[in-house]
Amino acid sequence: MKIDLNCDLGEETGNDETIMPYITSANIACGFHAGNEEVMQATVKLAKLHGVNVGAHPGWNDKKNFGRLEMKVSPEDAEVIVFQQIDVLAKIAKEEGVDLIHVKPHGALYNQAAKDRMLADAIVRAVKRVSVDLILVGLAGLGLCEAGVEAGIKTANEGFPDRAYRPDGTLMPRSQAGALIESPGGVAANAVRLIKDGIWFGEKNVRVDTLCLHGDHPHAVENAKLLREALMKNEIEVVGLKK
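Structure (tokenized):
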């Protein structure tokens, strides 16, 4: 069995250098919800140093709320917003001799696209404008991945080992008690379960292609260490996404 491990970086949380050695894909903030071109370039260089895949992490233009506030934006405007961010990072990656591998929306944009098909389609169009070879990362089994598949681009179903899931396969809202798994041991065990069992949506089982390690988690680095150890014990190979 194989799995990709990704983390949202370039958000100036202070954990990039310590967590980079444990992951295979870096989702780099593109300046709208966090970061700027200088930070983006530094993060691309750090990923290159560690042999980690580089991906774009576009969000709503809302640094005040770290891109976590839902916004009502027309599909046309959403496409432009997402395209601009991917395009900037793609150019920086090219300057550094690094291939841009994937796109993973951030925060509210990511969650809205999981349930808003018109927004999901707009994101897909933005991705395709940059390159039809880019991999689109979305919440496993939901709308963004479905939109990507139907549009003919490669997608990666994402799971969250530090989050609890509801019986219907969706993530438990952060506002509910127990939604965030605090224990590094619990995170590692949940990661193995997600990889081996997939996620059930009624009678449909969705395989997880990539797991997200949150860099701003209180135990981010310890989570990463224990998770890698657990995967090794279970003979699960950690490899980056491939176009």
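The first strand starts at residue 2 and ends at 9. The two ends are 18 Å apart (CA to CA).
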